[in-house]
Amino acid sequence: MDLLNHLYTGFSIALTFNNIIYCLVGVLFGQIIGVLPGIGAPTAIALLLPLTFKANPTSALIMFAGIYYGVAYGGTITSVLINVPGESSTVMTCLDGYQMALKGRAGPALSIAVIGSFIAGTISVIILMAFAPALAKLALRFGPAEYFALAFMAFGLLTVFGGEQPIKTIISTMLGLLIATIGLDVVSGMPRFAFGVPQLFGGFDFIIIICGMFGIAEVFCSIEEPEEGELLKSKLHLRDLFPTWQDWIASRWAILRGGVIGFIVGIIPAGGITTASFLAYLAEKRASKHPERFGQGAIEGVAAPEAANNAASISGFAPLLALGIPGSPTTAVMLAGFMMWGIRPGPMLFQKNPDLVWGLISSMYIGNFLLLLINIFLIPAFVALLRLPYTIIMGFIVIFASVGAYSVNNNLFDVWMMLGFAVLGYLMRKLNYPIVPLVLALVLGNLAENSLRQALTISGGSFFIFFTRPISVFFIVIGILAYFSPVIRWAFRGLRRVRVDTTSSKT
Amino acid sequence: MRLADLIGGMVVLFFGLAVVFFSSQMEYYSEFGPGPGFLPLWVGVVLIGCAIFVIINVLRKHDKIGTFFKPRTKLGLHVLVIIFITFLLLPLLGFSIGLALFVGITMRIMGKHRWLSCSLTAVVTAICIHLIFISWLTIPLPQGLIGW
Which residue of A102, A120, A139, B97 has the smallest Cβ count within 10 Å? Predict the structure, then answer.
């Protein structure tokens, strides 16, 4: 009954004319961002965030959420038509989507991706409505020890999902933590790493770092390694877009499996939509009776990762709204937005700002429906966007990043700092240091440090406080396992090799 | 790429050492619990440990893994220099004109578009920046000597 009440509250907010327009702008913008190379959801939201300071927070968050899940839809178009993922979350779609397009079946590939995303997205919102309040209720029991343990686990999971080189992921996480400590210490009031520069006393604003590391750094990377693919010449007509009955039969379980995997991976801190689509593809291949068809144009290979990335982008809101912990760079930027409007996400958000929470969640039904319509009727228009020269896109990114960085404190110092972070981000990418751990550690840094200090103050300096509370122990154990996952993986690989050697020597 | 990786590892190592040095000058533990130097010190220690691991890893492996400088790296550096000069000129030119010039110049250098299209795009960009950010969103962007 509660759920229906929440749904009614949510829809009464999300269905106002103003919020529908914000939602439409968000999904349309997200779709465009997804199609354009060199700009992703975190960058787009970070660039727009300073410009929405005067907007109603609920409306602005509805728009940002629309951008987030809209991007996953848009990235599919480039994956299928030019074999270049518009977004990292649509990398897996390239494998079978492009093969389908080469066989003249681009239409069904695109439509099954859209319909799969819509179904999985809608199911994900329904589960989110039931799951997020339950998670918030559980989080009410959290004290400083649990919050630190949660952050510790999130940092550990970054090692699992962060990249190919776990040591570089840890370095990146540490850099994020370190940047978070710059400025006045909240407990002692002592400046840390400010070196007498007054502008650094308040620390670095998150927007400046995001604009630099995701916005401008991405420009340098895109210039250096342009993602160029050949647009397939065949024209897409509306009648070619619909899948056949066989396509439906082949995709139905893939969509459901992908949706479930996506939802679960999305709620794991640091899981992210890219991992979700990757795991869904692998699971589908394993579940298939004909795994050899994957990579040759199997429609399930499009349906599963697309359903997963959309479901994950929606379930990623659960830890953000209920715990105040972002699981991905995009939700991290949205957390910065919450803070900008003076709203603190977390368990109390459901009680203090129910209009915002339920309005935002309900808007996802509307956004997914709008995206379904947009993608059925406007795909040719988005394909035309692929012909936009990169120099124009680059100009837009530099303009929005510069204005965004300036408008944080209305000074040019921040614009220079943004450029500094852009160079750092570019060098890190070149040297294979992942950026995402830095960003998440930066956002969670203050929470982690303050919780650690509070917990140790309560316990009189004893670290046992983290091992005497069940929730905290659970998070700490998962975190430790995650940190040591490369060693565990290495040991397992060694064991398997020994086993293979012994069996081959026996034969 | 090995050399770049090695230099990267060394930079992280020196950075970690600097962090340990500066955080050791802060209070590690106060009467209320961990002090301001507590977390940074441990972060510095972990950075040093990881950097040593990276350096050893680079020195142990001899296989070539990609190159740091790619054929278009120079073009990227050109854009960085243009952005740098644009930011230097922003107080004089203002945001509208400064960033519009950036768009026009990069279109010419990178995209090899015709002068006419570059100039027209620059003019339209300047007008759009002024109308959207300064007039509509009322962001107090520097307007330079020209005052626009």
Answer: A102
Model pTM score: 0.86
| Calpha distance A312→A124 (Å, rounded) | 8
The reply to whether B123 touches chain A by the CB within 8 Å rule is: no
CA distance B50 to chain A (A): 6
CA A135 – CA A494 distance, rounded (Å): 39
Q: Which of A322, A307, A392 is nearest to A118 (CA)?
A: A307
Structure tokens at A200: 């650094």
CA distance A392 to A407: 22
* 3-state helix/strand/coil string of A31-59: HHHHHCCCCCHHHHHHHHHHHHCCCCHHH
Q: Does A223 touch chain B (CB under 8 A)?
A: yes
Task: Identify the residue among B24, B80, B113, B143 best suited for mutation to test binding to A, counting A beta carbons within 10 A and taking the highest.
Answer: B80
In angstroms, the CA A278 to CA A62 distance is: 27
Compare CB distances from A410 to B99, B129, B140 and report the shortest one's residue. Answer: B140
pLDDT at A98: 87
Question: Which chain B residues have a beta carbon less than 8 Å from that of A403?
Answer: 95, 99, 129, 133, 139, 141
The Cβ of residue A310 has, within 10 Å, a number of other Cβ atoms equal to: 37
Q: For B88-126, what is each residue's pLDDT tens digit? A: 999 999 999 999 999 999 998 887 889 999 999 999 999
- What does the pLDDT profile of chain B (148 residues) look like in tens digits? 788 899 999 999 999 999 999 999 999 988 778 889 999 999 999 999 999 999 999 888 766 667 888 888 888 899 999 999 999 999 999 999 999 999 999 998 887 889 999 999 999 999 999 998 888 888 889 988 888 7
Q: Tell me what pLDDT residue A162 has.
A: 66
Interfacial B residues in 25-84 facing A (CB < 8 Å): 26-27, 29-30, 32-36, 38-40, 43-44, 46-47, 50-51, 53-54, 57, 68, 70, 72-73, 75-76, 79-80, 83-84
Are the beta carbons of B139 and A391 separated by less than 8 Å? no
Q: Are A75 and A90 in contact (CB under 8 A)?
A: yes
10-residue mean pLDDT profile of chain A (507 residues): values are: 80 92 92 80 82 85 90 83 77 88 85 89 88 85 90 86 82 94 88 90 87 88 75 62 82 92 85 84 89 88 92 88 85 85 85 88 90 82 78 88 89 94 94 88 89 90 88 92 84 77 66
Distance from CA of B55 to the nearest CA of A (A): 11
Nearest to B87 among A419, A452, A456 (CB): A419
Q: Which among B26, B57, B141 has CB closest to A190?
A: B26
Distances (CA, A) of B128 to A410, B103, B121: 20, 12, 10
Strand A191-192 with A183-184, pairing: antiparallel
Sequence-separated (6 or more) residues with CB below 8 Å from residue A132: A317, A318, A321, A322, A350, A357, A361
- Buried b or exposed e, range A340-358, using 16+ CB within 10 angstroms: beebebbbebbeebbebbb
Given a contact cutoff of 8 angstroms between Cβ atoms, the answer to whether A172 and A495 are in contact is: no
Burial of B61 (0-12, 13-18, 19+ CB in 10 A): exposed
Nearest-Å Rg of the Cα atoms of chain B is: 24
CA gap A144, A155 in Å, rounded: 17
- Cβ-Cβ contacts under 8 Å between A and B: the total is 152
Which pLDDT value is given to residue B111?
78
